Amino acid sequence: QVQLVESGGGLVQAGGSLRLSCAASGRTFSTYAMGWFRQAPGKEREFVAAINWSGYGTSYADSVKGRFTISRDNAKNTVYLRMSSLKPEDTAVYYCAADAAVVPGTLVYEYDYWGQGTQVTVSS
To answer: Most CB within 10 Å of its CB: which of 2, 13, 31, 39?
Structure first.
């Protein structure tokens, strides 16, 4: 069992930056791949970024590539999402999730555990 708690969301102007954190409980955090997803009002939850258990394998949605960076600190049981050059279309609730697979997936159903989400609002 893994419990996830996101933090770091807020209101930021377009072009600004935020860093989201996701703290995980449980001793098995380092064995999970981790992902970030987001959901805007009226839209489906979509993949943002993922990182494998070691931190050396990452993947990104095309819409955030070059602007967002996912990382993890297994000693702190925490995964991060550094977001820069934010755009109004990045506005959404951001969720972190844990995937027991070796290679992290990009689909919602592939993830086993979810946090409650943190709101990110980018003003124009």
So the answer is: 2
